[in-house]
Structures are given as C-alpha cells and as structure tokens.
C-alpha cells in the first residue's frame, strides 16, 4: 500500500505548500491568528476529497490571573471536488465547521449565513458512511453538492480522532494539565483533615 | 448554527465575568484555592441551563518527598433557571457534585446536608436524557426542582468529557506523567537482569 | 454523600500515613525504588476493601542513548479484610498484580509461587461484579479468601482507569510524547520528497 | 504468572540488545532516523512471536515557522518464527506496516513491492483472533506464512494500544498540545467580543 500512499501524500503536499488560495488549510478570518500546526487528515476518493482538522478553543485572561474558556474549539471539514485522477481542486473547496455537540452526534447539521447542509449517514449496503455537503449561496450564485463515501475503517479513524480531540476542544485538557501534585496552592489546606493520629493503626 | 452560538457565548460570558454572586463558577469554600482555569461546558435550554466543570483531586506531600492522593476530584454540575429568553439567573443556581463513582454510572444520586437529589434518566421517546436536580433546604425554606432535557449529541459530549477527565480526578494522570524512560530512579536496577549475554543471538 | 466520603477518606488516610507494615501501599522488593506518587483508588465494602494502583513499566538505556522498555507495568490489587465497621486490617492484606493482558480481560488469573487465584465475575443478579482473591501459602499455612462485591458504577470506574493506564504500562505514552513536530532528527529527510514544485497548483 | 513472564522478558531482551540483524527493532531505511525509544509489545506463541510498535508521523517546517504533517505514522508488526521452545528467530522476521486506516479496521491488508498479505480474523471457536502474514518475494524466492493465534485478552490489549496511539500517528496530539490558555497568539483577539458589559448581571 505504500506505493499508492506516496501518490496521496504528494497530492496532499500540493495542497499544503502552495498559495493560500489553493490550500486546504483554513484561511482564518481577519484578526484570528493562524495555527502553528497543520494536521489535516485526508480521505481521497474518486470524485472528491475530505480533509478534517481540529481548531483550538479560545481562552481569555481574567483580572485574577486565571483563564477562562470563551469559545469552544471545533473540527473543520474541507471538501474539494476532483479535477482529474487523484487531483483535487482546493480553489473550489467548501468548508463546514463541526461544533462539539455536532461531533457528539454526526448526522444532519446546518450552518451559516450561506446556507450549508451537512449530512452524514450510513450507506444502505452497510459498507460505510457518506458525507454530503451541499452549499447554497444566492449572492455568489453557488449551488454545490459534494459527496464522499467513507469506508468503515476510514469512519473509525475519523470518529476515533474526533473522540480524542473533543476534550481539547472543550478546553478540559488545559484544566487536566493544571492538576499537579506539587501545586502548593492545592491540597495543602487538606493536610489538617488528614494529619491526625488514629488509634487503629498503632 | 454559528449565529445562534454567538448569543450563547455572550450569555456564557455574562456568567463568567461578573461578580461571584452571579457567576456559575463554583465559589470554593474558605481555605480552598480557586482554580486557575474555568472550563465549564454549558447546555442551554428553554427553562434552565446546565454547566459542568471538573474539580481537581487533592494531593498531600509525604515526609519522604513523595505525594499521595488524599481526595479524589469530582465534576461539578451547576443548574440555573431561565429568567428570560436565553438568559439564566445564576444567583439562583443549584450545584451538585458528582463523585468518580457517580460519573461511572449516571443515575440517581443524593448529596449533602441540604437534601439534594439528582436524577439522570433516558427520555421516554428515546431522543436523549433528562437531568433533574431537586433541592430541599428546610432551614432556608428552599424547595426547588430544575429540569433539563439533554439531546443524544449533548449527552455524548458530556459522557465523553466525563470519561476523559475521570483518570485525572483519580490522580492517575499524575502517576502516568511521572513515568519517564530516563528516570534514573526507575529501571536502572533492572539492568543486571537484562544485561546478560545470550547464546541465542550470537 | 460527602459526609460518608469523609469517613472513607479518613480511613484511606490511616492506610497511607502509618507504618509500612499496615500501609496498603505496596512495599517494593529490595532494590526497586518506591513510587513518588501514591494514587490508589479504593472500594470499601462491609467485609473487605480493595485498593487498585498502577505500577510503572521499566526502561533501560541503550549504548546509543536511546531507551528500551524492558518490563511492562502492571496494576496492583490490594485486598484487606474488615476488622470493624469501616476499618480494614491492612496488616493482613493480600496483593495481586494484573499484567496488561490480564487487564485486557478481567477474568480468572493465577499468580506466583504462593498460589494466588483471582476471579472477577459478573454477579448473578446483574447488579455488578465480584472480585475474589484466594491465597494458599503452605509454608506460612495461610489459606485465605477475600471477596468484594463491586457495583456497576464502581466497575466502570475501575475499567475506565485500567483502560486509561494501559498505554502507560506498555510504555507507549513515552514513545507518543517523544513525537514532536520540531524534532530535527525526524522528518527533515522527508523534505526532498515533498519539496518539489507541482504544476497542479500554479 | 511472574515466573513465566521473566522468561518472556529475557527472551524479549535478547531481541532488543543484540545486533541489528537479529533485533526485532525495525531497521529504518537509510536516511531515516532511528527512534529514541523502543516500546515493542510482544505476544509469544508456540510457533511464532508478534511484536507491535508505533512509528512516528513526520512533520515539515513551513517558511512561516509553522509545521505541517507530511506523513502519517503507522504501527509496525513484526513476525518471527519459533526456532526452539520460547526462542524466536528474528533474523527471519517479516514486517508489515499498518496505516491509520488499516488500524481503523483490522482485516485483510496488502502491502508493498514484495507481495505481503496480512489477515486478521476471528477464530472460529470465538476464543480470539489470528494474525496471519504471508509474504511472497519472487526475487529472493521467499514464500513464507506466519500464523499467530491471539487470545481475546491479548487482542483487547492490541486494540487498546492501537486506539491510544492513533491520534499520535495522525499528529493530532501535537496540535492538541499546542493549545494553551496563556498563548497570547490565540484568543486575545476574542476579548473585545466578550469584554462588553451586560445589563443582565448588574
């Protein structure tokens, strides 16, 4: 399978290293900083490709020096139609962002001012799922539908990756990482409660 | 969905940045340090909102320089009744702390001096679960019941977050993080056992 | 439930802070270093208590400067019979170590020179599982059996903790943590393969 | 079980500490750096042994200072036939690399210029799975088939380890680890949106 994969990686490379116009990497809205790491996972099929990529939650500092989560992260889905054999036209890509709740149940989701409808449903023959994104933009007169069949194995990878990233999108990893045994601001007040002497063990 | 969400985040913001009286952030008992990170995940419904947030376990130093877990962490549930459309009255919030075992099986749980009963049960139509917290405080003459329907997707996010955080509440992450290959206090004694020469591979 | 728990924690405290003879903390064999963190999770029942605690894998340095895993970690189960209401006699504790494979399928396991048999089976009424450890030591003339019923929720916590810790016992976390994007020893050789110019995106 | 395991670990040691020719550690192709950690998990059976080991994804630096994933990691399976009781001939080992998608669904997979076929299927009696690797190399005139029965418990450990490592092979852990609350390049632009004063909480 490695031979085949190299072609895929070459293809992926094209996507990543060229101008932002054709890159599958999400162009952040003005004022939002670009990520420092691009970790898109791609599924390439005959008529289209799908790249999925996590997006950070946002924290804000409080006056107390603590931080609070102000915006949960999400997963960005990017769909590109095929232009030729194993070549995808990322200039015509369509994006859809999955919130944590939408990740919790992949199904029918709608988004945005430009009407976007994502449907994720099992294939009738039980061989996997399909992802279908249809986009209607009456201003730009775009009316597009991109369809990707996803095998069971590919779907397992997606849901496994989504399940992994979910606590990070919620910011719970940051809380979890802040729990340290030697943190003097925690637990030391608990000492009196546990420091007594007990008959039992003498 | 983004448009709707912004309103929700604004709502959430109100909760976090105002006085502690109206904040959904748990006011720690005197002597307990406040967390440095606020990562509440909220579910907003017509009649009430629910915010879930992890709380650290506590460690104590031993004379040997090691640390021991003295109190397991928990998940704090905070319920606030709606006061108007998409506005919630956190001054009237009710809290419930879920122990690790209660996280292990969300069901019927009771708590505290003030009698609190939390019920988490599937909705009869299979569309999700409900969280119901009823509180009876005869001293303050409070007798309140807060009910939140939770969709399948929202429930999946909650259980996924709970499942993620559980080892941290047990403090097992701290043990896990202390396992380092280059820790000279570990494994070096194992060398003699594995350092011999063996006929087999000559 | 908090009131009840404090008693449990006090009980747990007795276990941890007294002489090694009565401590539930595993006394490591001579030459093996003691862990720096004690994170035992305990289940207290009428006739006995069970504490579960992870134990590190061991690594050895290679001449190349790399490290290899030479011994997988395990989970230590410690059983103590009750001596009085909510008091457990850790001087009479029996221990059993679960290998990663035994963690993979909690069932019937045997161990050691002193014959030990651990059985983990569902309770007939479906309300949970039982852990039964029987120990026969003909030298010391010990023939003991400790039985602990474990509720569904408690069992979920145990298996969730076991599932979390398993990759750490395998040492895979150390490998995973060594994967860094800015590691110049990795991936830089990949550049030529991906650095070419492609017609497609011009 | 410890006694038995020591023999296994001794066996494993032989594999790791001798010449690269007989080591089960994967000899990287020229130009690829060797891993710094060897964390192979082995299953030893009568006729053969199987060692599984993760392999890092590869990142490349971008001109912007960011990094992109250019090659997903994989899991390396190494099969060695038995040469004597509890001794395995790693000089005759056969290797197979599982891509993330193949990890997502262990089943029938093919690889490479030298034709390799891996089959993972449930045993007919329901007692576990078998791994079968057959290799045909017409140049070297090799035509070999290695078969390993894997118990349910061993299979659970493998899939648990695979499931753990998958996000690391995708490089998503690196993204996840880059999400920090105090990262000034993130979230600070969000402040204006959340910094307003709200009537509600006055």
Notes on the structure:
Four copies of one chain form a homotetramer. Chain A is an alpha+beta fold. Chain A has one domain: Roll (Transcriptional Co-activator pc4, Chain A), CATH 2.30.31.10. Chain A has five helices and twelve strands. Chain A has helices at residues 2-17, 100-104, 152-169, 172-177, 191-194; strands spanning 37-38, 41-44, 48-55, 58-61, 67-71, 74-84, 87-88, 94-98, 108-111, 115-122, 128-137, 142-151. In chain A, strands 2, 3, 6, 7 and 8 form a five-stranded antiparallel β-sheet that branches. The radius of gyration of chain A is 22 Å and the shape is globular. Chains in contact: A-B, A-C, A-D, B-C, B-D, C-D. Chains A and B meet through strand 5, helix 2, strand 9, helix 3 and helix 4 of A and helix 1, strand 1, strand 4, strand 5 and helix 3 of B.
Number of helices of chain A: 5
The appropriate CATH architecture of chain A is Roll
Outline of chain A: globular
Let me know the largest β-sheet of chain A.
5 strands, antiparallel
> Structural class of the helix and strand makeup of chain A?
alpha+beta
CATH homologous superfamily placement of chain A: Transcriptional Coactivator Pc4, Chain A
- Most extensive interface, chain pair and sizes: A-B, 50 and 47 residues
Task: Give the integer mean of the pLDDT values of chain A.
Answer: 77
Radius of gyration of chain A: 22 Å
Query: How much helical structure, as a percent, in the residues of chain A?
Result: 10-25%
How many β-strands of chain A, per DSSP?
12
How do the helices and strands follow one another from N- to C-terminus of chain A?
A: HEEEEEEEEHEEEEHHH
C-alpha end-to-end distance of chain A: 66 Å
The structural domain count of chain A equals 1
Q: Please mark out the parts of chain A with pLDDT under 50 across 5 or more consecutive residues, or reply none.
A: 1-32, 184-202
CATH domain class of chain A = Mainly Beta
CATH topology type of chain A: Transcriptional Co-activator pc4, Chain A
> What oligomeric state do the depicted chains represent?
homotetramer
Question: Which strand-content bin applies to the residues of chain A?
Answer: 35-45%
């Amino acid at each position: 399978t490695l031979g085949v994969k190299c072609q895929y990686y070459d293809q992926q490379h094209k996507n990543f290293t060229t101008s932002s116009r054709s890159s599958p990497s999400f162009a952040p809205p003005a004022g939002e900083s670009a990520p420092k790491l691009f970790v898109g996972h791609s599924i390439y099929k005959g008529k289209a490709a799908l790249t999925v990529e996590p997006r950070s939650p946002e924290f804000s500092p409080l006056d107390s020096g603590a931080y609070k989560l102000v915006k949960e992260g999400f997963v960005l889905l990017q769909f590109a139609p095929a232009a030729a054999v194993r070549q995808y036209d990322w200039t015509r890509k369509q994006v859809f962002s999955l919130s944590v709740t939408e990740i919790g149940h992949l199904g029918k989701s709608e988004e945005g001012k430009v009407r976007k409808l994502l449907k994720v449903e099992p294939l009738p023959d039980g061989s996997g799922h399909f992802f279908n994104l249809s986009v209607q933009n009456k201003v730009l007169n775009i009316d597009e539908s991109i369809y990707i069949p996803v095998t069971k194995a590919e779907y397992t990878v997606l849901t496994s990756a989504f399940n992994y990233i979910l606590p990070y999108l919620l910011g719970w990893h940051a809380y979890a990482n802040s729990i340290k045994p030697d943190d003097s601001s925690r637990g030391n007040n608990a000492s009196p409660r546990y420091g007594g002497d007990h008959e039992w063990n003498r």
